[in-house]
Amino acid sequence: MQDLLELLEGNPYPGRGIVVGNHRVYYWIMGRSANSRNRIFTKTEDGIRTEAYDPARLEDPSLIIYHPVRTMGEDLVVTNGDQTDTIVEAGDFFRGCLARRFEPDDPNWTPRISSILHPDGSFALSILKHADTVANQCTREFFCYEGVAEGEGYFISTYQGDGNPLPSFAGEPIKVTMPEPDEVWAALNPDNKVSLYTNVAGEVRLFNAREEE
Length: 213
Description:
Strand content: 35-45%
Shape: globular
Structural class: mainly beta
Strand order of the largest sheet: 3-4-5-6-7-8-9
Largest sheet: 7 strands, antiparallel
Low-confidence stretches: none
Oligomer: single chain
Number of strands: 13
């Protein structure tokens, strides 16, 4: 098991990330461009959405404005894109993920990462990414967990680190420690972090870098 704080402190750009633990979910976004950094998380009736901090400076809303978190019955769906809506509208995590593919941002082909947390503590994670061996085809990976011990979680992100093009996350979700929300926010790279959503047993907190300036 890896220390999540050490993992984040040693990586300047994991991109967007999801960590799911025992009735805990963390989701953050990062950005390298001015357009990506011009965002905040705001609450909605059934979750949260991304919004432009300064609407006048918003350039291209595609791929950066979406609902990362929504409820689906008693389940909580957390993703890095508008596949959240696809999953909720389908009423089924797996069917929703199977209907989508990686983001069309050549040459990065950013993976779509998704999770669902059930009331009994079980959860699933999904990664939809570009199939390196076959042009323009998608590999869809699913990982299902009956639960996890207190203080532990599983982590996935869009990227392994910074680069050009950005290297996609590889392998299975990483088993990590589950630190407190403030510690996670502090561990994210200060130049690239944008926002963090945390849900600990139903208590939601939002961290927005632009509101701290």
